[in-house]
Amino acid sequence: MFVIVGLGNPGKKYENTRHNAGFLAIDALASKYGISITEKKHKALCGSGYMEGVKVVLVKPQTYMNLSGESVREVLDFYKLDPEEDMIVMYDDISLAPGNIRIRKKGSAGGHNGIKNIIQHLGNQEFNRIRVGIGKDARIPTVDYVLGKIRKENFQWEGGSMKKVLGILGLCCVCILLGLSIKWSIAENISLVSAASNVSICRYML
Fold first, then answer.
1. Ramachandran area for residue 16 (φ above 0: left; ψ -120 to 50: alpha; else beta)
2. How far is CA 111 from the centre of its chain?
3. Which positions are catalytic?
4. pLDDT tens across 19-44, in order?
5. Residue 193, Cβ neighbours under 10 Å: how many?
């Protein structure tokens, strides 16, 4: 089993804001795999189901971003899971250009308060995280920028749309779940590659 967490702030006020990129990613996964995220528990909205044959729990903490660790800790304790092996966290990153994606297995919070709180509650900074770039604008204070609404024309990945960005985030999750690495392609598709054999085993059209 895997826990996949998307970070964000609850409430209408924060819907579709840059800081809620993690929530948007979870919603995209839920839609693709037919998972209902309606259970209110562990200080979060949760939903369980299967992604490519792997059981997952999708989690959207409702504690507000800066206290995300409270919810994550409860979920991991309830299911008796190891954050290093059984968890993925998706969240926004102002240091990456809009729509760019970066995967890491460990590291500091990098100034992200949600990740900082998770590390504090887990006492461990080794867990899978997928960062999606939201960029930054020197003309706008950082708080105002991250809480600003996402405009589709500014949420790009290699010239693609927000739908493509969210699709690639989902693909990244699948790769981690199945122990695969990603082989990027300039074309409108991406190969999943076995980390052990380096042989392409599947293609996703985005």
1. left
2. 17
3. 19
4. 999 999 999 999 999 999 999 999 99
5. 17
pLDDT average per 10 residues of sequence, the chain (206 residues): 96 92 93 95 97 94 96 97 94 86 85 94 93 88 90 52 74 80 47 38 34
Amino acid identity for residue 179 in this structure: G
Q: For tokens 């924060």, name the residue.
A: 14
